Amino acid sequence: MEDLLQNFIYYLSVEKGLAQNTLDSYRRDLKKFTQYLKRHHITDAKAISRKNISNYLLEQKELGHSSSTISRNIASIRSFFQFLLIEQKIKDNPCSDLDSPKAEKKLPHIISAKDIDLLLEQPQIGDIIGRRDKAMLELLYATGVRVTELVSLNVEDINLKMGFLRCNGKGGKERMVPLGSLAIKSLQDYLRSSRPGILKKSDNKALFVNQHGKRLTRQGFWKILKKYCQRAGISGDITPHTLRHSFATHLLENGADLRSVQEMLGHADISTTQIYTQINRRKIQEIYNQTHPRA
Predict the structure, then answer these.
(1) Residues linked to residue 154 through DSSP beta bridges, in sequence order
(2) Strand 174-178 and strand 164-168: pairing?
(3) Which of 54, 225, 229, 272 could form a disulfide with 234, with the two C-beta atoms 3.0–4.6 Å apart?
(4) How far is 264 from 247, CA to CA, in rounded Å?
(5) Residues acting as catalytic residues
(6) Does residue 107 form part of some domain?
């Protein structure tokens, strides 16, 4: 099973061209599944039944995993068995008619514009690392890019004169996103007086680099964000995606049209963007209930 799993990951990487984060997700899901099979003394792919898969998914549910996590596991397992069919390692797909659980629709967590301002005030712009952090936070909130897109940016992807950035989103789809004046100023300060001092190799194209002069990682940025949230006294589980959600919600609250927000976020389907209108409606309802004399 381990060899089959490795072959599957290689197939996804080379023939499908999936991103490393996606490959890691497949690997984690399927490694847990194969470990479950091993505990139940199932080592031959041909011996795996639909009942084995259903029991595994039931165990995941009993362990408290969400519907979205279980749905992702089903998708990973289904893709794995489709690969085994192609490779003629099995004759029948035991999960071909396996249903995914109904996804739980949770509204994204956002933080207020006031807390955003407080967060963006935390980096100390008197030192080179503070100016870098200020530029990253300003850019993330100004554009709503994903953290992977943020750390993947190269210097050539930023056009400060025209006021936009170019990034590659999911599926390698390129999009242009406008930059606000405050983000532009912070980026100018960083590129002029911080990045050259942090950079170790002049040929490094990465826009944001760590203290060793190498491209900043997703994990590195998460730690930076957590530090400034603690410093600002912002409670709750704040992630880079929280800033993305807040970016979209604040735009809609201030009159942006849904289609423009969809383009800036890089959503393929506008229904994905529509969840932010629910947040907006919820806020309107709260204001109504608090202020109308007959609410």
Answers:
(1) 206
(2) antiparallel
(3) 229
(4) 10
(5) 146, 170, 241, 244, 267, 276
(6) no
Residues 224, 159 share a domain: yes
Using 50 as the pLDDT threshold, list the residues of the chain that sit under it. Answer: none
Same domain, 123 and 199: yes
Residues 9 and 84: their CA atoms lie apart, in Å, by 12
Q: What is the pLDDT of residue 285?
A: 64
Question: For residue 124, what are the CA distances in angstroms to 120, 142, 231?
Answer: 10, 19, 12
- Could you tell me if 264 and 194 lie in one domain? yes
Range of the domain at 277: 113-290
Is residue 31 a part of any domain in this protein?
A: yes
DSSP-derived secondary structure letter, 170 = G
DSSP H/E element including 159: strand 158-159
Length of the chain: 295
Characterize 17-30 residue by residue with b for buried, 16 or more Cβ atoms within 10 angstroms of its Cβ, and e for exposed: ebbeeebeebbebb
Neighbour count for residue 72 (Cβ, 10 Å): 17
Enter the tokens of residue 218: 């997703």
Number of domain units in the chain: 2
Give the pLDDT score at 145.
Answer: 93
Query: Quick one: pLDDT at residue 36?
Result: 92
Are 140 and 209 in a shared domain? yes
**Whether this model's pTM surpasses 0.70:** no
Encode 181-233 in three state secondary structure. HHHHHHHHHHHHHCHHHHCCCCCCCECCECCCCCECCHHHHHHHHHHHHHHHC
DSSP 30-59: HHHHHHHHHHTT---GGG--HHHHHHHHHH
